[in-house]
Amino acid sequence: MGRSLIFGDIHGCYNSLKSLINKLAISSDDKLIFLGDYINKGSSAKLVIDLLLDLASTNQCEFLRGNHEQMLISAYHHPEHLPLFIKVGGRPTMHSFGIDSIEQLDKKYIDFFINTKFIMELGKYYLVHAGMNFEIDEPLSDIPSMLWTRNKSIDRKKIGNKKLIVGHTPKTIADIEKSLSGDTIFLDGGCVFNEVDRGICNLVALSFEDKEITYVQNIE
User: Cα 126 vs. chain centroid, distance in angstroms?
Assistant: First the structure.
């Protein structure tokens, strides 16, 4: 029986992603789930997306949308949003794809981004990129919060007593390990920032069934 492997934010860190996949010794029986933010800041977004597409041809894959994919989609449909995309690290992404504007992006890539999911359910957990808005009665109705918010605590009663698995907020390995027993599991190891002194320098994956993490340090 295969594993369910859940990956934190990649942000164009292709070499690190490839290293983590090799370390995990992924088989075709494994289900791969990615929490979003595949692009921006790092220099190899196209290689990352090509690798994800390759993985989807051999494995069951689920791709959630991060706030950075959302900003790319917004810039694609509304060119006036391009400056914000660039401001948050989009220029290396465009360089990676060899384009000067988002409108030049090949259809297979924009289709990939548009077809990402906002949320998925796995056992007793909801998986989203960032978190949920527990200030309202129906957190599942607030899509923007799933892309952007940073929860310090959650109200499980509002989401059917489920817990969360998220990326988005960079954490040290110690904090990620601590979160495994809490209401929210955090999987963004801050790989792209490569701040070794702060411990924010790792690409992280969670083996869902046994709640064990595997990680590699940034090797870009």
Answer: 14
pLDDT in tens, 71-84: 999 999 999 999 99
Write the pLDDT tens digit of every residue in 180-199.
999 999 999 999 999 999 99
SS3 102: helix
Return the closest-CA partner of residue 205 out of 28, 47, 35.
Answer: 35
Strands (E), the chain: 4-7, 31-34, 60-63, 119-122, 125-128, 163-166, 184-186, 202-207, 212-217
Q: Are 183 and 194 in contact (CB under 8 A)?
A: no
Q: Is the dihedral of CA 32, 37, 40, 41 positive or negative?
A: negative
Quote the CA–CA distance of 35 and 83 in Å, as a whole number.
25
Rounded to two decimals, the pTM is 0.97
Chain-centre distance for alpha carbon 35: 3
